[in-house]
């Protein structure tokens, strides 16, 4: 990519579209990225990255591409990150991360990489997360989340896991509402495998 050999992850010059010297070299697929100051969180399905053995999750230096000592080690793939309130929320198909059993979703300490006591538990993979105020949302292939039956989408208040009934999905249908400014244009695409995407609607 960008005229250079790179293994599954690269940094490109935004103008010239050529690869920079930044080269963490991942042994497997990269599925999630999140910038955190001078570093970058990387998730996916790999066993080494940034010149260190790391299992599916790592923190890389954005200047050198080297992995930090931070190492929560997820036993299965990581698909999503969300940074909020000095925590790193992680979604994926794992059942253990940060030294504790966590099913599909976890909150990690960004300093010591340990999982916190927050543990709502999904019975499937979590692909996406969002938060607004005290409302936390998650979407994925699960059919139960926390203490309730949920088909692929859940919204609950924090702290705790108080489910919001108005946000329950039915028969795997998720309703999406877009809001924005006059003149802005939105395109929504859908996928069943996160690889092949088709337009769903355009405003």
What does the model show?
With 203 residues, the protein is mostly beta strands. It is 0% helix and 38% strand. It is built from no helices and 18 strands. The strands form 7 sheets. Strands 11-12-15-16 form a 4-stranded antiparallel beta sheet, with no helix packed on it. Strands 1-2-5 form a 3-stranded antiparallel beta sheet, with no helix packed on it. A 3-stranded antiparallel beta sheet has the order 6-7-10, with no helix packed on it. A hairpin with a 2-residue loop joins strand 8 (96-97) and strand 9 (100-101). The model is unreliable at 166-170 (pLDDT under 50).
Give a brief rundown of this model.
With 203 residues, this protein is mostly beta strands.
How far do the termini sit from each other?
A: 33 Å
Major sheet attributes: 4 strands, antiparallel
Protein structure class? mainly beta
Q: pLDDT average, as an integer?
A: 87
Strand order of the largest sheet: 11-12-15-16
Blueprint of the fold:
Layout: E1 29-36, E2 39-45, E3 48-49, E4 52-53, E5 57-61, E6 78-84, E7 87-92, E8 96-97, E9 100-101, E10 105-108, E11 126-132, E12 135-140, E13 144-145, E14 148-149, E15 153-157, E16 162-163, E17 187-190, E18 198-202
Keywords:
mainly beta; four-stranded antiparallel sheet; 203 residues
């Amino acid at each position: 990519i960008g005229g250079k050999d790179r293994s599954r992850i690269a940094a490109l010059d935004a103008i010239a579209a050529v690869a920079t010297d930044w080269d963490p070299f991942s042994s497997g697929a990269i599925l999630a990225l999140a910038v955190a100051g001078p570093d970058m969180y990387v998730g996916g399905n790999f066993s080494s990255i940034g010149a260190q053995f790391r299992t599916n999750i790592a923190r890389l230096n954005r200047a050198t591409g080297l992995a930090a000592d931070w190492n929560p080690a997820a036993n299965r793939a990581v698909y999503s990150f969300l940074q909020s309130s000095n925590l790193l929320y992680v979604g994926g198909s794992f059942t253990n991360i940060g030294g504790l059993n966590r099913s599909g979703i976890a909150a990690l300490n960004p300093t010591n990489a340990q999982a916190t006591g927050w543990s709502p538990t999904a019975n499937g993979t979590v692909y996406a997360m969002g938060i607004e105020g005290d409302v936390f949302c998650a979407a994925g292939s699960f059919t139960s989340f926390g203490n309730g039956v949920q088909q692929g989408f859940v919204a609950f208040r924090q702290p705790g896991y108080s489910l919001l009934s108005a946000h329950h999905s039915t028969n795997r249908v998720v309703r999406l509402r877009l809001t924005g400014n006059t003149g802005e244009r939105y395109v929504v695409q859908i996928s069943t495998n996160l690889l092949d995407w088709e337009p769903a609607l355009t405003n």
